[in-house]
Amino acid sequence: MKRKISGVASVFFCILFLLSACGKPKNEKGDSFDIYYLNSDRTGLTKVTSEISKNQSTEKIIGRILKALKKPTEDIDYTAPIPEGVKINSYKLEGEILYLDFNGKYVNIDPLEEKLVRAAIVKSLVQIDGISGLWLTVEGADLNDSTGKVTGYLNEDDFVQNTGSSLNTYETANLTLYFASEAGNKLIAQNIDAKYSSNISKEKLIVEKLMKGPRKGTGYATINTEVSLLSVTIKDGICYVNLDNEFLTGGVDVKPEITIYSIVNSLVEGTTANEVQIMVNGEKNISYMDKIDLTQPLKEDMSWVEKAEEE
Fold this sequence. Notes:
alpha+beta; 2 domains; five-stranded mixed beta sheet; 5 helices; 24% helix; elongated
């Protein structure tokens, strides 16, 4: 008799377990959202699985994804797509269209980078059930692309080519590069127009141009041509320049400060970076020519620039 009751009880509790399991929301692998970040060069997108669960309200999911798109990351391999200073004024879901309004600083984003920023935002948010597309505005006015055309309704199909690769276009940038004076104790500015592919970030372009040296008769090299650039990326307002060991040998007949501030001044003037962290094989705990401390990021120093002679 006891065995019969025990058997009935077992069946009863099994049914209760199955019913309760059916009623619980799943939180298994695949139940979280992917966030699209910009890669380290800000020339393409990187997809990263987030901890944002799908088992919460649409309003909360939108808020958390927008926060993730804005919050600086701790990983040097990718960066938050929404730049510092750009803020989200408001968002509103009407039907299946999410209306997203930015502050005026959005229009200051470089046109090539803006396409990727737009792609990262759209591709991250259209994953949410009930959102089929976005409409972006700036201070209440429709967002225009680099050609002046209203971007209008956007969904993931508009950005098929952006994940892991950049837009296949070429731009011309006016750069101010700093090379050495004849005496090697001052910097002289050189303005150049450089045509470059969007596969190359502007910070990489600048360092490569510095390593190549100035045009003939317009200054002297500040970086040994044997030096190799390992990587360069901007994160949270700091440009990280990673060079190989050859950099520490000097190899150019200029003051150590001229080499360092040739790099720092050129990058701060030509990019969004406020400071430059020079590294060697990924190490920061170094000094250049036993004179310049490179353990901390450096700010622009225009005192090394030779003043133009007054006519």
